[in-house]
Please model this.
Amino acid sequence: MTVTIYHNPGCSKSRKTLEIILDSGVKPSVVEYLREPPPASRILEIARLLGVPVADMLRRGEDEFRNAADLPALDDDAALAAWLEKNPRVLQRPIVVDEGRNEAVVGRPPENVHALLNP
Model:
């Protein structure tokens, strides 16, 4: 099983999701997305795997979202993905992708990751 977690070590939900993955015996690829923002193309791919528009991947309570003067239209997935690449703090977290099965979940709550680990 090849799993990638888009992780923020400062987030308790992200830490708990990572713990569940590790406790299951899976060694994930950990991407600290605030340091290594995923490119817009990957954000679009993750949205497709989640089955949601990119707008559903936004943390709307973040200051960067609420104060953004350059925020594109919420129905423009490509423009939003490009904006998220430049503003990764607004990306929902954590996101876990099973690369082999092309499935993804948001670890909110962390227990959501069980759907990937125990198909």
Observations:
- The two ends are 11 Å apart (CA to CA).
- The mean pLDDT is 96.
- The CA atoms of residues 61 and 67 lie 10 Å apart.
